[in-house]
Design goal:
This protein has 272 residues and is of the alpha/beta class. The chain is built from 6 helices and 12 strands. The radius of gyration is 24 Å and the shape is globular.
């Protein structure tokens, strides 16, 4: 048998080994890992993963035009601290982004206290992100009160393919992560000088809390609030105003609502 035949057989054998043990292995490993992580991760892990994904997207913005801040912790003038997922500073405006890592369908309105996510036949309730981001912008404004007439943009971002069934008319941008960069391309009118934008970013970087202990304390405070809220609901007490909770029925099923409605709009789905 000639050397050319041996060489041809060797090449074919090498291609076979690479196809079976190389390409085939890489093709399936990553999707299976992602699916496993989503199904077993808790809400905190999903939140961290979502913020990381959005941070990566924002890193693609031109650095000479945008300054990106991720996981910003600020002192709240009313007490405690406030955590903001992402802030993007530019001469086109200051974009305050709240990241949500949910799947399925999302229902909500700007006036509702809570929004609802439906995934695989189950419903989950979460605090209205429009209200949440309004608080973030208010805290940011109070911390940088020396900067007047700053154009803020409120943005709430969900994962790709999330079906958004929301009604918001106050200017908040509700979109999916893969539409974020398009949003920045659309908003290109200069709303403040480059010098003012740079000064805003410099001051924000100076005042944000960077100590690890402060982040731990913030997380502990959030957890303590959730526990206190759960105990109040279990006792039939409205955690917002202290009045009695009553059982009611709506189009999405039974829920607990404050007995003083409409003065207090607190609600809580019973299956939670």
């Amino acid at each position: 048998m000639s050397m050319d035949v041996f060489l041809l057989l060797g090449i074919l054998l090498l291609l076979f080994v690479v196809a079976v043990f190389g390409f085939g292995h890489k093709k399936h490993k990553r999707p299976l890992s992602k699916q496993w992580h989503w199904e077993t991760a808790n809400n905190v892990e999903k939140g961290i993963a979502g913020e990381k994904a959005v941070s990566e997207i924002l890193s693609r913005l031109p650095q000479y035009e945008y300054r990106v801040f991720n996981n910003v912790l600020l002192n709240n003038p009313l007490g405690g601290t406030t955590q903001i997922d992402h802030i993007v500073v530019s001469r086109f405006g200051v974009f305050v982004i709240e990241t949500k890592n949910f799947r399925g369908k999302v229902y909500g309105s700007e006036s509702a206290q809570c929004w609802e996510e439906y995934f695989r036949g189950k419903g989950y309730e979460f605090y209205n992100p429009v209200r949440q981001n309004n608080t973030h912008i208010a805290v940011l404004s109070e911390n940088l009160v020396s900067f007047e007439n700053v154009p803020f943009f409120s943005v709430v971002a969900f994962p790709p393919n999330t079906r958004l069934r929301v009604s918001v008319n106050n200017g908040t941008k509700i979109l999916c992560w893969d539409d974020l960069l398009n949003l920045f391309k659309e908003i290109k009118n200069e709303r403040m000088s480059q010098r003012k934008a740079e000064a805003f970013g410099f001051e924000l970087n100076r005042i944000q809390i960077k100590e690890v202990e402060s982040y731990q304390k913030h997380a502990e405070g959030v957890q303590a609030y959730k526990q206190k809220k759960a105990m109040a609901i279990q006792d039939g007490i409205c955690p917002r105003c202290g009045n009695k909770l009553v059982r009611r029925k709506g189009k999405f099923g039974e829920f607990l609502g404050c007995s003083t409605y409409p003065d207090c709009e607190f609600i809580w789905k019973i299956d939670n």
